[in-house]
Design goal:
The chain has 5 helices and no strands. The chain is mostly helical. It has one domain.
Length: about 100
């Protein structure tokens, strides 16, 4: 009696320059992952990002009207953002300020 099993994994083969492979291997080691796991995860993240960027946003006419109303309101300052934007950037501070 023969039984057929459904294939669950499909091989993917790539040709990469040595420098690319070295960088991938280094990053995989830093994450404690195998090369395969690292590349698979990176590819899946990139694929999901592309798919999510191309999906249309669907909403009811009422929901869209509420969305437009919120966008039409005057902007309100966010205190945390105002405080953050008032701080000098790290490259704008002098050495004497750090002491």
């Amino acid at each position: 009696m023969s039984s057929t099993t459904e294939r669950k994994d499909y091989p993917v083969s790539m040709r990469l320059p040595e420098a690319d492979l070295a960088l991938i291997d280094r990053a995989a080691r830093l994450r404690g992952r195998s090369r395969t796991d690292f590349v698979r995860e990176a590819a899946m993240q990139a694929a999901e990002e592309v798919v999510l960027q191309t999906l249309p946003i669907r909403m009811s006419p009422e929901g869209f009207q509420a969305f437009v109303e919120v966008l039409s309101e005057p902007a309100r300052p966010v205190p945390e953002m105002v405080e953050l934007l008032k701080r000098p950037a790290p490259w704008e501070t002098s050495e004497s300020d750090k002491r």
